Amino acid sequence: MTGMVTGKVALVTGAGSGIGRKSAELLAREGARLLVCDRDSDAAEATVQEIQASGGEAEALQVDVSDEGQVSAMVRHCVSRLGRLDCAVNNAGIAGPTGTLETVSLEDWNRVQAVNLTGVFLCMKYEIAEMLEAGGGAIVNMSSGAGLIATPGLSSYSASKHGVLGLTRTAAVENARRGIRINAICPGSIDTPMLRKAMEADPATARFIEGACPSDAWGRPKKSPKPWSGSARTELPWSPDTPWASTAVRWLARAHSPSVGSSNS
Ligand SMILES: NC(=O)c1ccc[n+]([C@@H]2O[C@H](COP(=O)([O-])OP(=O)(O)OC[C@H]3O[C@@H](n4cnc5c(N)ncnc54)[C@H](O)[C@@H]3O)[C@@H](O)[C@H]2O)c1
Question: Which domain holds residue 181?
Answer without folding.
Answer: 9-258
